[in-house]
Amino acid sequence: MMNLDKIKARTEQNEILWIFFGVHTANAVRIAKRLAQEKSSQAAA
User: Is the pTM of this model over 0.70?
Assistant: First the structure.
């Protein structure tokens, strides 16, 4: 049985929107991790 109910995007525009937010969320997580690492390295110095 396929779990098609888990698919959030039902239209092409909605699919593009989900991809857009996914990419930007991933970028935000990377930036946050980098800033936290820089902050901890400055505190140690």
Answer: no
Task: Report the distance separating Cα 1 and Cα 21, nearest Å.
Answer: 28
Q: Which residue has the tokens 């525009």?
A: 13
Kindly report the backbone phi and psi dihedral angles of residue 3, in degrees, each rounded to the nearest multiple of 5, phi listed first: -95, 65
Q: How many Cα atoms are found within 13 Å in the side-chain-facing hemisphere of 23?
A: 5
pLDDT digits (tens, 9 = 90+) for 7-37: 677 898 998 998 999 999 999 999 999 999 9
Q: CA–CA distance from 38 to each of 27, 28, 45 (Å)?
A: 17, 15, 11
Residue 17: which residues within 8 A CB-CB, separation 6 or more?
9
